[in-house]
Amino acid sequence: MDIIVITDPDFLPGEAEIIMRLLDEGAYRVHVRKPAADTRSTAHLIEELPAGYRSRLSLHDHHSIATCLGIGGIHLNSRDPQPPESFSGLISRSCHSLEEIRKYRDECSYMFLSPVFDSISKEGYRSAFSMEDLRKSGISLHNVFALGGISPDNAALAASTGFGGVAVLGWLWQQYRHDHDADALLERFRCLFFLQSCQELNRFCQMA
Q1: What's the sign of the alpha-carbon dihedral 175, 176, 182, 187?
Q2: Closest CA to 172 of 117, 120, 101
Q3: Rounded-to-integer distance, Cα 37 and Cα 79, Å
Q4: What is the mean pLDDT of residues 92-103?
Q5: pTM of the model
């Protein structure tokens, strides 16, 4: 099971360094999501990262700068529903229903389905799915990432339901917004990464 990290919507101290360390620690991708930011501010954050890291970034807004900055993916949503014609990297999309998963599966490298659990970063944004209903739906979730309320308490449940991975936001960044403790943030990520690695090992042992 892969882990995608979505950035906090605000720019935070030391963020570029943290993004690099998250990728070094095993994050599958980091999604740069700054919905209120202008193009220049978003580009400045990306330019702080060495070029070798940028292919593992996906951009939620200001898609026009993706190619010139060497960004490897763009993420489609209601604000930007279509990719630039010149872009040839990974395409991902936000989905909020199984109908959308069916509709966009063939157009995307992977998708987010949300909110799978009660959101941590958006107060009152409640789970819209039951794990039992997802299992019974007959829809393959192998290229779908569970988003919304992801933490070590439920990541294994998402994996056992068939999701190909999880996308984490609030649980990872919420405390950092107050204490700016990068080491503690990285330790939280390692905890999640360790748990999902154990899940994969257990699954392998059961198949052997």
Answers
A1: positive
A2: 120
A3: 13
A4: 95
A5: 0.91
Peptide bond preceding 50: is omega within 30 degrees of 0, i.e. cis?
no
pLDDT (tens digit, 9 = 90+) per residue, 148-161?
Answer: 999 998 998 998 89
What per-residue confidence (pLDDT) applies to 124?
67
For 124, list phi and psi in degrees, rounded to 5.
85, 0
Specify burial of residue 21 (Cβ count, 10 A radius: 0-12, 13-18, 19+). Answer: middle
C-alpha–C-alpha distance, residues 13 and 180, integer Å = 7
Burial class (CB in 10 A: 0-12, 13-18, 19+), 175: middle
Q: For residue 92, what are the β-bridge partners?
A: 75, 110
Quick one: DSSP state of residue 63? G
Question: Hunting for tokens 């990872």 — which residue is that?
Answer: 172
Q: Which two tokens stand for residue 110?
A: 């992977």
C-alpha–C-alpha distance, residues 37 and 20, integer Å: 21
